[in-house]
Specification:
Belongs to the short-chain dehydrogenases/reductases (SDR) family. This protein has 7 helices and 7 strands. With 234 residues, it is of the alpha/beta class.
Length: 234
């Protein structure tokens, strides 16, 4: 049966690839977007996840169109990379407010219907950087690492209601976020990846789609790397 799915940050990159994959599998998919153009062929809802009222309104619109959200994928995120000594407090808190607290807002709102249904799938999109760290990304790495503790706490809190929480940690993926890098920077980073290449958004989407599937019903609190082996040992 088709399910009601909401993907935050689903207008590009991994979020959009995930929305397309779930839609192709037969689900009714809504995506939120903020600054990028809304994607065609999906229910696109403008939403800034740093605003609780906008998150609530986005869920209401998705629910009216597709029914109560049964699968939530949290992919909305920003970067404000800077070395610690140059990083402003606003650079730090803005990234946490979007990447971590924005996820909290979406999960809290989704949990209402999932608790009533005694069923749900939640997948949080973290990053390989969360587990191994990266210079100049203390804010981003901290926000993404926190998602692991958040997901595992939720897995324990809501597991008895058949709601699963899992995390994927993509490595260097061919999305808009890395297109600002120079060829030299990109080559250096690819050189540290055992598989020797960038990941495709569709590869992370496939992992998310599995964790959101009925077949993954006995998997919760897991962290699944999709990073070409870059994070081994972390």
């Amino acid at each position: 049966m088709p399910r009601s799915v909401l993907v935050t940050g689903g207008s590009r990159g991994i979020g959009l690839a995930t929305a397309r994959a779930l839609q192709a599998a037969g689900d009714r998919v809504a995506v939120t977007y903020r600054s990028a153009a809304p994607p065609e062929g999906l229910l696109a809802i403008r939403c800034d996840v740093t605003d609780t009222a906008q998150v609530d309104a986005a869920f209401k619109e998705a629910e009216q169109a597709h029914g109560p959200v049964e699968v939530l994928v949290c992919c909305a995120g920003i970067t404000r990379d800077q070395l610690l000594m140059r990083m402003s407090e606003d650079d730090f808190t803005a990234v946490l407010d979007t990447n971590l607290t924005g996820t909290f807002r979406a999960v809290k709102r989704a949990s209402r219907a999932m608790l009533r249904a005694r069923s749900g799938r939640v997948v949080l999109v973290s990053s390989a950087v969360a587990l191994r760290g990266e210079g100049g990304q203390a804010n981003y790495a901290a926000s993404k690492a926190a998602l692991v503790g958040f997901a595992r706490s939720m897995a324990r809190e809501l597991g008895s209601r058949n709601i699963t929480f899992n995390v994927v940690t993509p490595g260097l993926t061919d999305t808009d976020m890395i297109r600002t890098l120079s060829e030299e920077q990109r080559a250096g980073m690819v050189g540290q990846i055992p598989l020797g290449r960038l990941g495709a958004p569709e590869e992370t989407a496939a992992a998310i789609a599995f964790l959101a599937s009925p077949e993954a019903g006995y998997i919760t609190g897991a962290v699944l790397p999709v990073d070409g082996g870059a994070g081994m040992g972390h």
